Hints:
- The protein has helices spanning about 5-10, 20-40, and strands spanning about 45-55, 75-85, 85-95.
- By secondary structure, the protein is an alpha+beta fold.
Amino acid sequence: MLSKPSSPRILSDKKYNSDNCKNLTTQLTELIRTQVKQELGVQNRFKIVVLVMVGSMKGQGVRCASRCLWYPQFDRFASYTFNNEHLFAVGTVYGVYYE
Length: 99
């Protein structure tokens, strides 16, 4: 079970800036990946894939989708959404089991 993400602390006071989004997305991705790997431990059997999307809140909607080969008996995912009045962020973590 994953603990509460650290991303709200980083994002709570941010305003959307297209010039800084690449760095912010990279920072969030590495933070989430590190947190997940620490919680799983060194003997885990999962390949971890992290996707993060950050965008501006302009009154319109957005939909995120992804596809992959999936073995539901072993593979897992978790998703977290954050938004404030200036931006939104969606982070998804996939744990793909391998032998």
